[in-house]
């Protein structure tokens, strides 16, 4: 099946924003063919960070993750491109910065991250999470593709 134009939810995390890298990361996204179709800069509260990362509740790194994600402003972006979810995760590189430096030295996490928790960027992992995460930050954004993305989630996973 041909890949359709679709969307993902990206975050530039507090470490990268504090380091002054937010503009550079957005420029890199655009250079790689992503359209920035919505953008917000905000600081997460503990409650919002816990909600956003609810799937990780109970894991050893959860409290540290929430503490990190509430430590300063973030930039939330809706990015659009054919195959946006996979393409953005590929540009970000592996979750762990040390893996990223070894396996994908030009990836965003290799370039801008600093350790296991502070890895500079976020990207949705599946169409259903992209739909949820886009709604989390941009509840009023009307995306024709979001519902379709959720509907095709099963096919994507299979
Ligand atoms: P992602 O989708 O690649 O961001 O990775 P996950 O959804 O698995 O984890 C969410 C975030 O939690 C990651 O981006 C890291 O910031 C953090 N994280 C994940 N796994 C670990 C871990 O094993 N140790 C630590 N310290 N942080 C982690
Ligand atoms: Mg994830």
Description:
With 158 residues, the chain is of the alpha+beta class. It has one domain: Nucleoside diphosphate kinase-like domain (Alpha-Beta Plaits), CATH 3.30.70.141. Helices cover 47% and strands 18% of the residues. α8 packs antiparallel against α9. The longest helix is centred in the last third of the chain and has 11 residues. It is globular. Bound molecules: guanosine-5'-diphosphate and magnesium ion. The site of guanosine-5'-diphosphate (GDP) has 10 residues, from α4.
Question: Topology of this structure?
Answer:
Layout: E1 5-12, H1 14-18, H2 22-31, E2 35-42, H3 46-52, H4 62-69, E3 74-82, H5 84-92, H6 97-103, H7 108-112, E4 121-123, H8 127-137, H9 144-151, H10 153-157
Antiparallel strand pairs: 1-3, 1-4, 2-3
The structure holds guanosine-5'-diphosphate and magnesium ion.
- Strand fraction equals 15-25%
What distance lies between the first and last C-alpha atoms, to the nearest angstrom? 13 Å
The total tally of domains equals 1
CATH topology: Alpha-Beta Plaits
The appropriate CATH architecture is: 2-Layer Sandwich
Question: Oligomerization state of this entry?
Answer: single chain
* Largest sheet descriptor: 4 strands, antiparallel
CATH superfamily: Nucleoside diphosphate kinase-like domain
The number of helices is: 10
Q: State the secondary-structure class.
A: alpha+beta
Name of the CATH class: Alpha Beta
Largest sheet, spatial ordering of strands:
2-3-1-4
Give unreliable regions as ranges.
152-158
Shape: globular
Task: Compute the CA-based radius of gyration.
Answer: 15 Å
The share of residues in helices is 40-55%
SSE pattern: EHHEHHEHHHEHHH
User: What ligands are attached or bound here?
Assistant: guanosine-5'-diphosphate, magnesium ion
List how many beta strands DSSP finds: 4
* Average pLDDT number: 91
């Amino acid at each position: 099946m041909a890949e359709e134009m679709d969307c993902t939810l990206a975050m530039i995390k507090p470490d990268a924003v504090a380091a002054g890298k937010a503009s550079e990361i957005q420029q890199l996204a655009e250079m790689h063919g992503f359209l920035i179709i919505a953008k917000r800069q905000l600081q997460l509260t503990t409650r919002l960070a816990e909600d956003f990362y609810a799937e990780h509740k109970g894991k050893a790194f959860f409290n540290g993750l929430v503490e990190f994600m509430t430590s300063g402003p973030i930039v939330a972006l809706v990015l659009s491109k054919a195959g946006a979810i996979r393409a953005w995760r590929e540009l970000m590189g592996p979750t762990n910065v040390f893996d990223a430096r070894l396996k994908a030295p030009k990836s965003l996490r290799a370039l801008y991250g600093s350790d296991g928790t502070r890895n500079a960027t976020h990207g949705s992992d599946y169409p259903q999470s992209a739909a949820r995460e886009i709604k989390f930050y941009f509840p009023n954004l009307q995306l024709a593709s979001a519902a379709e993305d959720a509907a095709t989630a099963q096919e994507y996973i299979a």
